[in-house]
Amino acid sequence: MPTSFAGKRIVIGITGSIAAFKVAGWVSTLAKEEARVTVIMTDSAMRFVTPLTFASLSGEKVYSDMFADGPDISHINLAMDADLFIIAPATAHTIAKLAHGLADNLLCATALATRAKMIVCPAMNSRMYSHPATQANIAKLKELNYQIIEPACGMMACKDEGQGRLPGWEQVQEIFLRSVSAGDLSGQRVLVSAGPTREHIDPARFISNRSSGKMGYALARTAYRRGADVTLISGPTHLPCPEGVKRVSVQTAEDMRTAVMEHFPQATVIIKAAAVSDFRPETKYTDKVKKEQAGLSLGLIANPDILQELGERKNAQQLLVGFAAESSDFLSEGKRKLQKKNLDLIAVNDITREDRGFEADTNQITLIDHQGVIELPLVSKERTADLLLDRIVTLLQTRRESHYLQ
Question: Which residues pair with 380 in a beta bridge?
Answer without folding.
Answer: 362
